[in-house]
Every structure is written in structure tokens, then in C-alpha cells.
Amino acid sequence: MYKSFLITSAILLISGCASAPQPTKDGQMDLTYKLDQFKQSTTHGLVSPYDIKLLGSLLDNPGQSETDGIRTYKRWWCTNDKNVEKYAQNFSNKYCTDQGGTWDGKWCRSTSDEPVFYVNIGDLKPFADNGRLPYCTSGRTFAIVAATSEYAKDQSVWLQKANAIGFKTQQEIDANKAKVTRQAVNKELQIKYEKASAAQSIVASGVGTQICGTSNNITRVGYVERIENSKIKITISDARLANTEIRPGGFTQSVIWDNPENWHPCEYNK
User: Fold this and answer.
1) How far apart are the C-alpha atoms of 2 and 16, rounded to whole Å?
2) Which of 7, 111, 115, 253 has the most other CB atoms within 10 Å of its CB?
3) What is the band of 138 on the pLDDT scale with cuts at 50, 70, 90?
């Protein structure tokens, strides 16, 4: 299969393989260079079909790019290694800690909680180029997206880039968690308030009040027969699947005692 692909690719080849990262001028192997080594070491077969530029393809491997010293790396490739994501996480964590940072799964953070670099890896088979996917005999198409500030000329430009990718400081993360918690608490309090108000209305309306209550996706309809010791005696006269006019199978009228907070006044016509 790969030989067939290579022959076909040779006909369609425009400008050769995508640019691979090169060591820096001082010979250092930065993040993008090492990520490319990682990608090559986990590639299935002699060559990944995604490394060949095909006529009319919108998904040519972009490889490495650099703007204002900010290096980005984007590649997808075929692999049959089931532990690629685990290896990538281990690599990123070590690379981050070697620089004195803390790895959170996608971002390397400095001790002052600023972004150092970003690495995201995942299975992109659903988004793969259909023209190349048949040649990915391993059946697993992965992608790496990374950006690093290691050679950024302007820290403010890098911070803008990081924020655009989705970086949040720990303070922002904590604030968002606190906001979500407050919203959840407020929602719970609102529900309790509404239930208490409904219960008070039922008790105030007294015997004969038509009430409804929904549980297990079934809305039951009944009438208050008696009020005693903060409980109500209910004759359940009808039932429907929630938000429908469908009566559940096997329904029969019944009489129960229940907490009025589980019910609310309603006007239900058969």
C-alpha cells in the first residue's frame, strides 16, 4: 500500500515534504525540534502520507513557523502506538519541569504563572484528509499543535498569542471555578425557594387544589384531600409522560401522603 502511495505521491508532489524544524543557530534543540523528533519516532511506516504535499490539498502539514521569535509547530501523522498521548504528556511534563515550570496537561507555567509553552495532542481521525486516510494503514491519525515562547522577541506579543490560544492564569481559573460554584449554589437556592413558595401556595389554597408533580420523567396530576402535620393527602387522578400528552402504561388512580414541596399548583385539563 505504501509503495502505491509513494508512486502516486511522486506524480502529485508539488514542493516536497513539509519543512521540519532545525536546530537553532547556537545548536540548541528547542521544543519544536524535539516534538518533531517525537513525531518521527512514532510514525507508522516509512513515511506518513500527511508529510506529502498533494495537489489541491488543504491539509498539507504546516510544520514549523516563526513570527517575532514565537515558534509554532503543527503536524499530523499516522501511528500504531497506543501510548502516543501518554508519551507526549510525559515528554511535555519533563521538558517543562527541566525549565523550572509546572505542566498542567496543555500549558507549561512559569513560577510566576506565565505561559512558557503550549502542547496539545490528540486523535484527529474524524478530521483527517479523506484522500490520505486510506494510506494511514495504522488507522490512527494524530496531531500535535504547539507554541513556545523560548525565543520570543516581545513578551507582550507572546502573551497575546497565548491568550488567543486559551491560556488562563491560575487566578483566572480559580475565579472561574468560584463563579461556577456560586452559580450552582444560587440555582440550588432558587429551586428551594420556588419549591417552598409552591408548598405555601398549596397549603394556603387548601383542600381541593389541583396540583402537579414530576419525578422519573412522569408528571402526576392530583387533588389535595387533606392537610396534616406538614403533609398533604393527594388523590392522584391522572399521569402523563413529562411534557407530553402520553399516559404511561399501567397507570391507576391512587391516594398518597407526600411533602407539599414536591408539588406545585397547576391547571391541568384532561
Assistant:
1) 17
2) 115
3) low
